[in-house]
Amino acid sequence: MTTQDEAELRRLLQERLELVDNDPEYEGAEPTTNDHLMLAVIGLVIPAALLIGGWVLYGG
Amino acid sequence: MEASKAEISAIHMAAEGSWPVVPAERRWGVVGLFGVTLSAGIAAWSYAIGGAVSWYLPAALGTIAMLAGALVGMYFVTLAAMPVSIKYGIDTIAASKPIYGSRGAAFSIFVQYASIIGWNGILIILFGRATANVLQEAGVIGADLNYPLSVVVSLATIAISYFMVIGGADSIRNNSVWIAVAVAVAGGIVLFQLIRQSGWDTIAAGEPAYATGNLQLDYTLGFEILVATVLSWWPYMGGIMRMSRSVRQALWPSMICLGLATGVIGLIGLYASLATGDPDPSISFVKVTGAWMGLVAVVFIGLANVGTAIVGVYATMIGLKQVPAFQFRLSWPMTAAVALGPVALIAGLIPNLFMDNILTFMYFLGVVFAPICAIQIVDYYVFRKQKLHVPSLYDSTCNGRYHFWAGINPVAFVATIVGAVFYWFLLDPVTYENRFVVGDTIVFQWTSASIATIVLSAIVYWILTKAFVIPSRKGGYAVDAA
Questions:
Q1: Given B74, B114, B243, B303, which is the most exposed site by the fewest CB atoms within 10 A?
Q2: Which domain holds residue A11?
Q3: Which of A17, A47, A59 sits opposite B71 (nearest CB)?
Q4: CATH code of residue B218
Q5: How far is CA B32 from CA B29, B197, B244, B261, in A?
């Protein structure tokens, strides 16, 4: 890796960051409340129901 | 010495791989995301995860604990790492800079490095052992040659991986779908033979090899194995999800293809272990399939494991190249050696010791990644209100917002250490002891280790950031959240 390569990389990064800074469309969407609710149902509620149901059926 | 064209191109790729992706480049729709996440999620290490669960649980409870654990682990990784990557088009390592600091993010690179070394060790040793076992079963070699041959096959696999990586991993990364197909076919062969030979009744009646005698504790241990191992998707999340622009589009691929797939494929390892009484998939698979079908399965596992290992090595190399000293001073082949060297040492010198302690490795993933996810969730949602300053993510000088103190946020490290120590109290990853006992009750069996660690780390980080970092006007909190 030469100094020239390093300088070229830094220039390309700077270009990209300026592009990002000046682009009003750059930012993707944030999760909505519905997204959070859906995620919580899949990742917390369903597993909790599975664990409790499994314990009732096979554990107790 | 002047760097070769390929090396420079690779270094450019490595550097650019960490840069923000602009909207025009984020072209993956639902189908693209499903394809990539499914090919990443279906990996042969899931067999080993299922084998580990069979230490504690029979088939029915093991199935439930695995599916639930996979979803819960993926919930925390998704919540922590996905929205920030989608909003800003950045990878996980860059996204960790507002937490650990512009220089402290080297910690994220280290944990990525360490976890991928561990997973690659499992993949490569499993393949070496499976090859030796199937050849022994077929009468090609005697028992005395089993160990030496498994080591030779493992080292040869590492050598092949090395030359493929330095030759250019693009084609291998692009063929990740075939890796997933190979894993699924190998698993399908084993599952088909398993049910044909043993029947579900034998699997269901299979006794766990190391049950503690306390079924609730075993249930939580099985659940914890999945939560902890799935948490180790954290370093991979940003690289995949930043190619999408919609959280809603990415949510299902993340939860189903990365999280649930790990649990579902792992069930094959669980059932094979319970039917044969051996939790090591390299042995149980050969016992189930016999010599010739085993040979076919081993070929598929070999293809899949080499492919998966190379993808992991490549991700590690990209991560290592984000360390400025490595980016400009370490050649591409040397970086490959740094990524694969520890795997070769493990596979050549201590394969049995490593595989005997595979569960320790899996629990250690929870020790490390549970606090990281907790801290990232609190930082991004509570303190920064989902707003980051992208140029500061690539500025390691004191002008960047995430410089904190000398590029490091000590509060994040304190919260990580507190979380790790708490995990150790709940479940010692080395001895599997549960030190946190209230009266006669083992706290772990009610709280698990990862979930309790996530809660405590989040609280510690919230308190210390409120008390010290924000009043010191460090970390860019006032500006980011404004």
A1: B114
A2: 3-59
A3: A47
A4: 1.10.4160.10
A5: 5, 38, 9, 17
Does residue B452 sit within a domain? Answer: no
Closest CA relative to residue B126, chosen from B343, B291, B271: B343
Check pLDDT > 80 for residue B122: yes
> Which residues of chain B does A50 touch, with a Cβ-Cβ cutoff of 8 Å?
64, 67-68
pLDDT in tens, B327-350: 666 777 888 899 899 999 999 999
3-state secondary structure of B405: strand
Residue identified by tokens 């919609």 is B246
Find out whether B353 and B27 touch, Cβ atoms under 8 Å: no
Residue B404 lies in a domain: no
Chain A residues near residue B61 by CB distance under 8 angstroms: 54-55, 58-59
- For B229-275, the pLDDT digits (tens) are 999 999 888 878 888 878 888 899 899 988 998 899 899 889 989 98
Rounded to two decimals, the ipTM of the complex is 0.91
Judge whether B230 and B69 are in contact, CB under 8 Å: yes
Give me the number of domains chain A comprises.
Answer: 1
**Structural domains in chain B (count):** 1
Question: Is the CB of A1 less than 8 angstroms away from the CB of B8?
Answer: yes
Chain B interface test: which of A32, A39, A46 (most B C-beta within 10 Å): A39
Q: For B16-57, how does the pLDDT look when each residue is reduced to its tens digit (9 = 90+)?
A: 567 888 877 777 777 778 877 877 777 778 888 999 999 999
Question: What is d(CA B433, CA B438) in angstroms, rounded to the nearest whole number?
Answer: 14
Q: Which residue has the tokens 């402290």?
A: B104
Question: Which residues span the domain enclosing B290?
Answer: 17-357
List A residues 38-57 in contact with B (Cβ-Cβ < 8 A): 38-40, 42-44, 46-48, 50-51, 53-55, 57
Question: Å from A3 to nearest chain B CA?
Answer: 9
